Amino acid sequence: MTFIKELIYGSSIKNEILSGITVAIALVPEAIAFSFIAGVDPLIGLYAACIMGFFTSLLGGRPGMISGATGAIAVVVAATVQTYGEAYLYPTIILGGLIQMAVGALRLGKFIRLVPHSVMLGFVNGLAIVIFMAQFPMFGSDASGVFACYSGTKLFTISALVALTIVIMVVLPRFTKAIPSALVAILVIAGLSFVPGIETPTVFNLLKGKSMQGGLPSVFTDYPADLFSMATLKIILLPAISVAGVGLIESLLTLTIIDERTDTRGSGNRESLAQGVANCISGAFGSMGGCAMIGQSMININSGARGRLSGLVAAITLLMFIMFLSPVIEMIPVAALIGVMFMVAYGTFEWSSIKNIKKTPKDDFLIMIIVAVVTVVFHNLALAVAIGVVLSALAFAWDHATGIHARIRKDENGIKHYDIHGPLFFGSTTAFGEIFDAKSDEDKVIIDFESSRVVDQSGIEAIRKLNDKYQEVGKEISFVNLSKGCKDILATAKIDISIDPDKRKFMVVYDA
């Protein structure tokens, strides 16, 4: 019953179907382009879009999100295909899918919450720029599919059609949202392409003059003869881990972004399982696998779709295109698809990150820029996110390393108290040690951790060293209000210090 509700999920059947058809059309050029990057036949990328889209929409944790063949996965598998051949691509995708299923089964999808907002903004902005830049090579292609920028009348024609596509997508929603503006724009530009004197490249040119029509793919074909050997495992293991990691990072970040845009909440663990299942099936049917696609997901969401039906319709429609309607798709002008993707890039970019630059902490803004630049330069989303997370962690550690301090007081018995404020961890141990001077301090000292927390082993070691310094000069030092975990670690390590000797309330006499 829940699945039936999720088919349209607050949308309408009409919106879901029309949006799914629009997404299917938008999937075509990217699936073809990413096939070229991976070094495989375009049909392999198109089948990947069908399989990934269908099973993630059916089983995934984020209704309305679209998956398919992606550039991130294409870049990862390209080296394997080039070095060892296409036969090793499919077991790589299957193994990557199994790893993703394990992540979902172990409920590790929640770790996406560790990605800071600044990193997420950098990822989104960088991906928007990548989508935008990826359209420029399509401004020129001859019948053989060789990209070479047009000039003169041809350049003016394709540019004008791209501009008209953008105008339709901007203006039409102000009058009606009954039909997705992207679909209307594609149909209008396709109609104009038949007007005498208007010559513009079509999807057929992207296919290098080869028809995209084909039958259903076969299962477990063209696999290496030594599939179940250690030699094959050594070849596919690292690429499979990369496929799993890159796919999950892109999918879970896209899920989080769609959550924010729709004010709903998806399931990262369920999505991880679905991505794994889809990749296993994709590899079994001889296609290149994939993950969530932020561009097509934004087309889907902006077209009014919110449920699973749109993704299912997109996958089935694309399969019908391949099997029966490929001549129709091949006639779609590239200009229309470029215009649609330009608008996707514009809608994907978080413009608020630029508008609110004065309100954003400098560290966060710098990290956002670095993540975006790495995404654009290397087209490696996993690397960009990893760098962003590390930089954010270092910035956090630095801020808290300088934040530890002590409030000093004396009681009526002349015992000196240090009330520690701020976390004690590897970054703050130096500042913590500089608070004390064992030689010139009082004979009895109490260190109070009620407003502090010992975070790691470095903090434990800092406590031990401080205890030793005071004992060496014959002075008494005690530690109070340590957490239970900290006490347990001290006991396990057999560190002999005085813990919580007396928790009586003293009259406070502040140091001058």
UniProtKB/TrEMBL annotation:
PROSITE patterns, per database record: STAS
Location (main, coarse): membrane
Segments crossing the lipid bilayer: 17-37, 43-60, 65-82, 88-106, 118-135, 155-172, 179-198, 235-258, 309-329, 335-353, 365-398
Alphabetical list of Pfam families matching this protein: STAS, Sulfate_transp
Membrane topology per record: Multi-pass membrane protein
InterPro entries noted in UniProt: Membrane-Transporter-like, SLC26A/SulP_dom, STAS_dom, STAS_dom_sf
Keyword entries, A-Z: Membrane, Transmembrane, Transmembrane helix
Name of the protein described by the UniProt record: SulP family inorganic anion transporter
Organism of provenance: Carboxylicivirga marina
